[in-house]
Amino acid sequence: MSESSPKDPLHGITLKAIVEELVASRGWPDLAANVAIRCFSYEPSVKSSLKFLRKTEWARAEVEALYLEDQRRAERNRVRNRRRAAMRAYRVANEATGDGDLGDDSDVDEGRDGDGLAGGDAVDASSDDTDPLNS
């Protein structure tokens, strides 16, 4: 039985594509800072990096983990940006129709101080004889 998506998130992505994308997004100095291998620090090139990463499993695992972290971060950013765009569109639509803004204090507009009482009336907390629960 075949699944629609493979369990391996790196399925179908070549090591060359991973290294090239990391270099494009992070640059060689950042790669050298995150994965301590000489081929990222001294005279870096895609060719020398691929040669080393294909021979050294631990380094390849670190580079793949860094790539997956970048992919997760990019997906979180896409979701966050879509949510922000939807919220902006909602606010613009409400402003255009005059339905009010998010964050306006409707209690103040109705003559209330925000405590649910009109015009600054205060509740006397020391008055125990009017409380039906204390009788």
Attribute tags:
mainly alpha, Transcription Termination Factor Rho, Rna-binding Domain, Chain A, Domain 1
- CATH architecture classification of the domain at 15-99: Orthogonal Bundle
Helix/strand structural class: mainly alpha
Strand content: under 5%
CATH superfamily of the domain at 15-99: SAP domain
Low-confidence stretches: none
Question: What spatial form do the alpha-carbon principal axes imply?
Answer: elongated
Order of helices and strands: HHHHHH
Number of E-state strands: 0
Mean pLDDT: 80
User: What is the number of helical segments per DSSP (H or I, 4+ residues)?
Assistant: 6
Distance between the termini: 71 Å
CATH class of the domain at 15-99: Mainly Alpha
Query: Which sheet architecture does the biggest sheet show?
Result: none
Helical content (DSSP H or I, runs of 4+): 55-70%
Predict the CATH topology of the domain at 15-99: Transcription Termination Factor Rho, Rna-binding Domain, Chain A, Domain 1
Radius of gyration: 30 Å
Short précis:
57% of the residues lie in helices and 0% in strands. It is mostly helical.
Write structural notes for this entry.
- This protein has 135 residues and is mainly α.
- The protein has a domain at 15-99: SAP domain (Transcription Termination Factor Rho, Rna-binding Domain, Chain A, Domain 1, Orthogonal Bundle), CATH 1.10.720.30.
- 57% of the residues lie in helices and 0% in strands.
- The chain has helices spanning 15-25, 28-34, 38-41, 46-55, 57-97, 106-109.
- It is elongated and about 65 Å long.
- The model has no long low-confidence stretch (mean pLDDT 80).
